[in-house]
Design a protein that fits this description.
about 350 residues; alpha+beta; three-stranded antiparallel sheet; 10 helices
């Protein structure tokens, strides 16, 4: 009977605590599922990845249950202290994980909300760039704070930290020299986020390569080139060097097509055909369509066709269309006035027939 009573004292309470911890874990998981379902029903029309929060939430609920369980387990003081320290480290990591996942969910909600409310493409792209860079900056801060928090739970690291603070002047100078490049890159990323010389989706020309801004991080920018290659450009490039941004304020662009025709062809005839071509294609955005004589030489007249389109892709197709159609028009209606190259072969003296 005494043995039974001692067994009850040793195992009964921890067993009940384990049961309560399991009930708490499954209850918290069920409650979390109901909260997610309630949020989804409240924001219908938005595909928000709320399931990203499930794993870090379960980890935190599990750690809370373990923290309660340890209080009632028959552990030595050393083992209990070891478990508490491990739980503290895991809790710091779990909270940081939950915060990072929450930022992803918040980013997706804001992007989808503004994409549904904002009609202007330029405004939507600027918002997307701001939100993306802000999330990456906060993620970096969360990681740094997590590493600092975990390290500060160790007494040895805390003592080293105090001694480092005592000589903070020398250490800060040394760190400044050692991390100058990294700090410059980080500051450039923050400056890009604030001033926004580029946004996600902008058409840019970098190193004589035309492409579209696909991704902006704190250290580099991914540019998708016209042939689907990716150019990785350091973020400092867009602060320190000039580049072309074709869609900084609007994606609408102007383009030119040059022709070199004979003096006998009337520019007005060519202008009428040009206006007919652009009016018949949906590639033209009906803003600008002009044809002018811009230069002349002793052999030909230079004519420039100026057209406009809604974006760079349609402008390229429109320029090619105008060039092809006008060349076909000249070939059919003025075949004798197309450029020709006449080659003559001089006959050597005495080589003629006798």
């Amino acid at each position: 009977m005494n043995v039974w009573n001692s067994l009850q004292g040793v195992y009964l309470i921890p067993s009940l605590v384990v049961l309560l911890v399991l009930l708490f874990y499954f209850g918290a998981n069920t409650l979390f599922g109901k909260i997610i379902a309630r949020i989804r029903s409240a924001i219908r029309g938005f595909s928000i990845p709320l399931e990203f929060l499930a794993l870090p939430f379960r980890l935190l609920a599990f750690l809370i249950g373990l923290a309660i369980l340890i209080q009632y387990l028959p552990l030595s003081s050393y083992a209990a202290e070891l478990f508490r320290h491990a739980l503290l480290v895991l809790a710091i990591i779990g909270v940081s994980w939950f915060m990072i996942r929450s930022l992803v969910v918040l980013e997706q909600f804001i992007l989808q909300y503004y994409s549904a409310k904002v009609r202007e493409n330029e405004t939507a792209r600027k918002i997307a760039t701001h939100i993306s860079l802000a999330r990456k900056i906060l993620n970096a801060l969360c990681v740094l704070l997590t590493i600092a928090g975990v390290l500060m739970t160790f007494d040895t690291v805390r003592q080293v930290g105090l001694s480092i603070l005592a000589s903070a002047g020398i250490v800060s100078v040394m760190f400044g020299f050692a991390a100058q490049k990294s700090l410059t890159t980080l500051i450039s990323g923050i400056q890009i986020a604030i001033t926004q010389p580029i946004s996600i989706g902008d058409e840019v020309v970098v190193e004589n390569e035309k492409g579209k801004i696909e991704e902006i991080t704190l250290t580099y920018v991914v540019v998708q080139l016209w042939d689907q290659r990716r150019m990785i450009v350091p973020i400092t490039w867009f602060i320190e060097r000039p580049f072309q941004n074709w869609s900084r304020t609007s994606p609408e662009l102007l383009g030119t097509v040059f022709f070199y025709i004979d003096y006998a062809i009337s520019p007005e005839t060519l202008r009428q055909e040009f206006e007919r071509i652009v009016a018949a294609t949906p590639l033209w955005d009906k803003r600008v369509a002009r044809m002018q004589v811009t230069s002349s030489t002793e052999k030909s007249v230079e004519i420039r066709a100026l057209v406009s389109a809604a974006n760079s892709a349609e402008l390229w197709d429109l320029r090619c269309l105008v060039r092809e159609e006008l060349i076909a028009f000249l070939r059919i209606n003025y075949p004798g006035l197309l450029p020709k190259v006449t080659a003559g072969i001089d006959q050597a003296p005495g080589s003629g027939g006798s």
